[in-house]
Design brief:
Length: 197
């Protein structure tokens, strides 16, 4: 998923193969991204003011990784703290972004960023795509002898907010853990799960 507020650059992202591109002001685009335990945010805007605007929203969402370009990192961190952002989350932002591989070109910088994301992903406990909260809810349901339905996205088409592999656990009382994207598809998933349960 990519975000760009300029039409011509948004098209470049589509041409480069981005699955989904939001061509909207950054704040508006970020409203459509829920974040999550398997979400990795890369902030590489054209100005530190846009970095701050993006990070103010991103740092309110769950995420496995948040990184930004480092040229104005100290200024951005100070402005985020002054705006009331959580200090621990601000400190955890990877800046400068990417592994130190001596990158010079845009392609090398992109490689260093993706390498860092892979490093972070592989250092985390592996749950076969199951978020820790979802695993805990499944274990609790099993201990209580409570039936549950697990919905998993196995394919996606068009502009959808969740990736293949996203999961949602549904319990008989209507409680859910996780998400398959909200909207009409999540509503229909809830209906199907209720019938199964």
């Amino acid at each position: 998923l990519a975000m760009e507020d300029r039409t011509e650059y948004a098209q470049d992202l589509r041409d480069a193969g981005a699955d989904t591109v939001f061509c909207l002001p950054f704040a508006q685009a970020l409203e459509q991204v829920p974040g999550g335990a398997e979400t990795y945010f890369v902030v590489v805007t054209r100005a530190h003011a846009f970095d701050v605007a993006c990070l103010e929203q991103i740092l309110q969402k769950p995420a496995a990784y948040v990184g930004m370009m480092g040229s104005r990192a100290a200024l951005v961190r100070r402005q985020l703290l002054e705006a009331g952002a959580d200090a621990a989350r601000v400190e955890a932002v990877q800046a400068p972004i990417g592994l130190a591989i001596g990158a010079k070109t845009a392609e090398e910088i992109a490689l260093s960023i993706l390498a860092q994301i892979v490093e972070v992903k592989n250092a985390r406990p592996q749950t076969e795509g199951f978020a820790p909260a979802l695993l805990a809810a499944m274990e609790q349901a099993a201990q209580n002898g409570q039936p549950a339905a697990l919905a998993t996205i196995i394919a996606r088409h068009g502009s959808t907010p969740r990736e293949v592999g996203s999961k949602m656990l549904l319990l008989p009382d209507g409680t859910t853990v996780g998400s398959v994207g909200g909207g009409i598809m999540e509503y229909r998933t809830r209906q199907a799960a209720a019938e199964m349960l």
